[in-house]
Fold this sequence. Notes:
The protein has helices at 34-50, 57-60, 63-79, 84-95, 231-235, 252-257, and strands at 4-8, 16-20, 24-27, 30-33, 109-110, 140-142, 152-153, 167-173, 176-177, 183-194, 203-204, 214-220, 242-247, 259-266, 276-284. Helix 1 crosses helix 3 (63-79) and helix 3 packs antiparallel against helix 4 (84-95). The protein has two domains: 4-103, Neutral Protease Domain 2 (Neutral Protease, domain 2); 110-284, Immunoglobulins (Immunoglobulin-like). Strands 7, 10, 11, 12, 14 and 15 form a six-stranded mixed β-sheet that branches. A three-stranded antiparallel β-sheet has the order 6-8-13, with no helix packed on it. The protein is an alpha+beta fold.
Amino acid sequence: MGPGGIHERVGRAPVLIPVQGLGQEVIEGKSVYKAARIWYRALTKYFDAKVSRTGDPAIDEKMFPAFRDICVNSAGELYGEGSVEQQTTALAFYAVGLQPDNTAYGPDVTSARAAQDWIGSQPYLGGLYGDAPLEESLDLFINNGGPPSGWTARVTILGASSPSPIVENTVYCRVRSVGDQAAANVQVDFFYAKAAADPLVWMPVVDKGGDPQSLVIGALAPGLLTFPDTRADQDNPPAGAGVKWAIPALSPAEADNGLLLKAVVSSGAGPHRLAHEVVSKIDCE
């Protein structure tokens, strides 16, 4: 809930459940984690009344899902019912297996964020995730034909000779259905910004014709990925999982600083309707 991460639960589909951290906010001049505020409110307002130890292990085991409930309620009281904070609290407990008995979590779709957002999870995630680049997401990358996939875009540099004023790249986004019910109307919208801009200005990703690019997935069953996350699948992604990105000509300084590529993953069904965002840092060549 605080810094975010990816929970790995072997035997469950999906095995990996990303959670975007809630981050911090300033309260009375001090920076505090939102998760700490939720936790503290749950402890001080509800814990004695709702959760207590009895000494009976079978009964005391129920303390954990009960504590989940009071944290979700506290998040709603602090930040509003249905807020990002409340939904993230519910997702964090769901990821570690603390969903209330006989209660469905519902549909939810997301993508793994850049590794720097889940660096604390890396010791538990081997293989492909053991060497994940810090500023890039393994679920949001470029592949212009054949291996390897990566995070370098072909661009036109102003003042340099080039056969084309606009170079088109192919961007891929892997979507993960992490809920326990099917998600409907799953869609990914793409945006980019010049990394050195302050403030960042997000612009739609368009193809050579100037058309904004979206990935319309439709229904996605629980536990499914739009394509697997093995190295082989990373380097040979399915064509249907990609969109075209025509990048306007950049100055040499803009190209040196690179770009930020953002995918917004959303679904129109179920209680978890807030869009998940994933960003990758893109180098230019």
